[in-house]
């Protein structure tokens, strides 16, 4: 949620509830107007794998999966999430689904438990993009 709000408003808010939201946002990219629809799902709600999770996957054209570099569990669930997304999305077509893995909280390097190299290697092994960011900065 912090990254979504940062993207939409350029402001940082540190505390969020456990709510699911869909946001719409216009942005000009390379001279073209792009309309983003962002379905922001808290980690606690991502844990369900069933019709609700499949509905979200079918709805989306691309995926940004965010983990905290200070939370090993948030990183460890990524491979299963990505495999589930690919099986659901790519099973219907031959097109590769765009997925980006984002390690958040880069500013909290003193609390880091997941190295940048681990994130890069996971993204490489799963054919995903990779970035490390700080929503706070």
Automatic annotation (TrEMBL):
Keywords: GTP-binding, Hydrolase, Nucleotide-binding. It is an enzyme of class 3 (hydrolase). PROSITE patterns: RAB, RAS. One of its GO terms (molecular function) is G protein activity. Its EC number is 3.6.5.2. The keyword GTP-binding applies. SUPFAM superfamilies: P-loop containing nucleoside triphosphate hydrolases. It catalyses: GTP + H2O = GDP + phosphate + H(+). Signal peptide: none annotated. Pfam families: Ras. The keyword Magnesium does not apply. SMART domains: RAB, RAS. PANTHER family: RAS-LIKE FAMILY MEMBER 11. Belongs to the small GTPase superfamily. Ras family. This is small monomeric GTPase. The gene is Rasl11b_1.
């Amino acid at each position: 949620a912090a990254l979504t709000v940062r993207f939409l408003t350029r402001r940082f808010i540190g505390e969020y509830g456990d709510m699911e939201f869909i946001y719409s946002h216009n942005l000009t990219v390379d001279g073209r107007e792009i309309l983003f629809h962002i379905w922001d799902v808290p980690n606690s709600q991502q844990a369900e794998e069933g019709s609700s999770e499949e509905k979200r996957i079918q709805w989306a054209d691309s995926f940004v999966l965010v983990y905290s570099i200070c939370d090993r569990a948030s990183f460890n669930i990524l491979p299963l999430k990505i495999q589930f997304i690919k099986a659901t999305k790519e099973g219907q077509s031959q097109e590769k689904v765009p997925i980006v893995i984002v390690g958040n909280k880069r500013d909290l390097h003193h609390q880091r438990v997941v190295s940048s190299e681990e994130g890069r290697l996971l993204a490489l092994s799963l054919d995903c993009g990779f970035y490390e960011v700080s929503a706070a900065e």
